[in-house]
Amino acid sequence: MTTTDAPTIGLAYDDDGSGPPLVFLHGGWLSAASWAGQRERFGEEYRVITPDLRGHGRTGASESRRYSIGLLAADLDALLSELGIEECVLCGLSLGSMVAQTYAARHPGRIRGLVLAGAVQTFPPVAIPGPMKRLLTPLPMLASSLALTGSGATFRSLLSTIRPLTGGPWLARDSEVRATALETVEAMPRDEFKKVFAALYRFRPPELDRLSAPARVVYGEHEAPPVKRQSRDLASALGCDVHEIRDAAHLVNQDNPEAFDAVLTGLLEEVER
Q1: Mind listing the pLDDT tens digit for each residue in 133-170?
Q2: All domains of the chain in start order, with CATH
Q3: Residue 113 · residue 270 · CB < 8 Å
Q4: Per the database record, which ranges form the AB hydrolase-1 domain (predicted)?
Q5: Nearest Cα to 199, choosing from 59, 102, 118, 57?
Q6: Alpha-carbon span 170 to 160, nearest angstrom
Q7: Average pLDDT over every residue of 183-187
């Protein structure tokens, strides 16, 4: 692990292997460790880069009072520029999918391939008109919950609202994967949790019509139906296939890494033709 001296913020990241660059972006309130299986699987053929996004993991808190998906995409651009990476295959999950969408829209010529996993176009993944969304903002309630119970309990409360949609654990079907993710969320400072939530809530999907690179959209069999719908909409906009991974929930790359890696391998083979 090394740390950049990027103009915006030094992002902690892992940089393994050699070959064409393959960049993975983790989900909200998690960390680069969630891509450990993919680092091992693809590290012999590719240069695998897994950053901890601003506010997360080893990167930790920043002095910025307000986060946005655009800011996280700018951090990624600074990191890749620092590493001398002009083109890459970019893979993002959940929050990471938002950052990947934004980066790809801003820099379509630098994307050789794109994978969006557990991908959403809005948060929450339902259409709410702009004025109403501002009026119904959950941020004051979220702040109260964080102050009273902390990051871990607040996150569990959010999970409880999703479970009725899936009939079982939404975050991950694998109990060890789920427990590790919850421990990671628990360690996040309350202020950082709130800033990340606000960035998710304010996200507006970018236009991806300038992107010509091959793409894939992936979600788990046990993903929440609203996420599946938005993922299919993204796939339609990108003109690419949707892959539903069996025996997997939101953290699809960890629940069923073999199936997820097979989809990614197919994309990489198409990119290298």
Answers
A1: 777 788 999 999 999 999 999 999 999 999 888 888 99
A2: 2-272 (3.40.50.1820)
A3: yes
A4: 20-256
A5: 102
A6: 9
A7: 97
